[in-house]
Structure formats: C-alpha cells, structure tokens
C-alpha cells in the first residue's frame, strides 16, 4: 500500500455507477450530484484499492459537510474506515492529512484566519471551533488548526476539548 497526500477531482457524475469507471488511482474522487450533492466516491487514499462512499445527503442518514472552495474539496468531519485498511484521514482543500500515531494532521495556518478567530473569541465564555467556523463561513479544519496555533502562542486556551476562549491571565493576546 502506498498512501497519497493529494486528492484529485475527476469531476461530477449523476450516478454511483458512472463514478466507478473514472477512479484510477488512490485519492481520485468524483462528486455525485443529482439536483444536490449526494456523495463523494473516492478511491481509498491508503492505496488498498477499495472505494469509499462519503454521504453528503442528510436525508439518507448521517452525512459529512463538504466545502468546495476554489474547486478544491474539503470534508468535515474526518473519514475513518472502521474495517478493511482502517484508514483515517482529513480532506482539506484537496490535501489528505493522515490521522494517527506519528502523523501530523495540521494544515497550513493562515494569519488572517487566526485574526478572524481571535475576533470571535472572548475571555468570559468558550466557543466550539465548529461554531466559530459557522460564524466565519470557514472550513472547520482550518479554524481548528488556527485555534491550536493560538493555543501554542498562549493567546487562547482550550476548555474543554474543542472549545476555545481568549487567555484570561494576560491583558491582551500576543497576536495579531
């Protein structure tokens, strides 16, 4: 097996069967759209050769959120195959970030994203990174990575997991 770190869009189709003939290598994906986005069909980026179906339609059960920004796909939450190869990964802007021991799942952290996150936080209450992403109209992964970068810079604290607020023991955050 050879893991890939880039997802490659092969366009859109209307039916699952049309997707199968297009996927040639690990990380290839197509978006199934029939009126609304229905699913993403992806050749497992772990290189096992199996196909992954990521449901995007809440009417048919639990569904992922997807974001197409600049024609690059992001999916939230992570994709975790609980059987077969057990791949666990994040897709953000057509990049694959592997989850697990020894893997780094932090993507590029944009300075403007950190500033936008800081502007939404205060010292008196915490806010979950998903809620911050909703308010900002941003990809949750990028907000999460920005929050963690701000924690490392001592501008923000995480209380409890996934919830962030401005650091309370300083007069002003060291950023922006």
In short:
The chain is built from 4 helices and 11 strands; from the N terminus they run βαβββββββαβααββ. The chain is an alpha+beta fold and 176 residues long. The mean pLDDT is 90.
**How many domain modules?**
2
Q: What's the total helix number?
A: 4
Mean pLDDT: 90
Strand content: 25-35%
- Helical content stands at 10-25%
Span of the ends, CA to CA: 43 Å
Task: Provide the succession of SSEs.
Answer: EHEEEEEEEHEHHEE
What spatial form do the alpha-carbon principal axes imply? elongated
Low-pLDDT residue intervals, each spanning 5 or more residues: none
Number of strands: 11
Could you say which structural class the secondary elements and strand pairing correspond to? alpha+beta
Rg on CA atoms, Å: 18 Å
Strand order of the largest sheet: 1-2-3-4
Largest sheet: 4 strands, mixed
Please, could you describe this protein's structure?
This protein is 20% helix and 33% strand. It is an alpha+beta fold and 176 residues long. It has a four-stranded mixed beta sheet with strand order 1-2-3-4.
Task: Throw out a few tags for this protein.
176 residues; alpha+beta; Arc Repressor Mutant, subunit A; 2 domains; 4-stranded mixed beta sheet; 4-stranded antiparallel beta sheet; 4 helices; 11 strands; 33% strand
């Amino acid at each position: 097996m050879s893991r890939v770190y880039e997802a490659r869009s092969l366009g859109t189709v209307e039916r699952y069967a049309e997707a199968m003939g297009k996927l040639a290598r690990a990380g290839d994906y197509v978006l199934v759209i029939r009126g609304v986005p229905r699913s993403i069909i992806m050749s497992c980026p772990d290189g096992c050769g199996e196909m992954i179906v990521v449901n995007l339609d809440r009417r048919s059960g639990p569904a992922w959120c997807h974001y197409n920004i600049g024609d690059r796909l992001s999916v939230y939450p992570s994709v975790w195959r609980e059987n077969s190869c057990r791949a666990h990964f994040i897709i953000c802007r057509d990049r694959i970030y592997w989850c697990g021991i020894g893997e780094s799942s932090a993507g590029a952290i944009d300075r403007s994203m950190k500033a936008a996150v800081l502007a939404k936080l205060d010292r008196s209450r915490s806010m979950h990174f998903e809620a911050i992403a909703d308010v900002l109209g941003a990809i949750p992964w990028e907000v999460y990575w920005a929050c963690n970068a701000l924690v490392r810079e001592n501008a923000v604290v995480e209380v409890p997991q996934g919830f962030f607020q401005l650091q309370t023991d300083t007069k002003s955050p060291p950023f922006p």
